[in-house]
Specification:
Length: 272
Amino acid sequence: MTTPVRTAAEWRQEIRAGRWRRPTAGLAPGFVQANLVIVPAAAADDFRRFCDRNPKPCPLLEVTAPGDPEPRQTAPGADVRTDLPRYRVFRDGQMVEERDDLHDLWRDDFVAFLLGCSFTFEEALLQAGLRLRHLDLGRNVSMYVTTRLCDPAGPFAGPLVVSMRPFAAADVPRVEAITARYPLAHGAPVHAGDPAALGIVDLARPEFGDPVPVEPGEVPVFWACGVTPQVALRRARLPLAITHAPGHMFITDLTADRIAGVAPGSALVPGY
């Protein structure tokens, strides 16, 4: 799928105007993409502890002040209420709707968390000459709920969710080395090979995203995924919480080069 070349800010404007409602994989090459979780301030400390205890699926990029929809450190002037292509709304642990903006739901006590996304390192893989089948097919990446458990924090608990990309067996070491340079985008894979080791029964039936075929001679490679908090929100049963729709990310002004080698918990930007 070919898309016009635009900066992160230009893509956010396209999304805010309603001209892009599809997954963001492949958009704004070189810029960091982010998962979004919005919770009431009363639950924010527990959710931050959940992120700190599970940095592979939940690498923190920014936490906004209560009631402030502007991610001032990673995308000044942006608005988390409008600048993602699609949102999910959770009530009492159930996903009740998907929507295009959050204006009528926004509250003065909402805290937004931006978490690194594996879409960020895809440009580095492409530059290394590695193909990404979900991009070639114009699909969302495949995502699966595993049997590995996250470390709980307060009401937040549950299994790790992973994204999957297939590669030729000979390319797997190179894939691992490239993605390991981006800890704030989930870093190195958590597993490569037999899906059953993660409790995944059928690669053709992902819980999130689209099925992406694994061809003969290829190995499925799995990364920790920022959809993990959506499963944790079901367990937490908050009266109201909001996330991105899987694959429909927030595009920050941070560059992938800037976060290369930076570990979760580091002082990435002033005020982090």
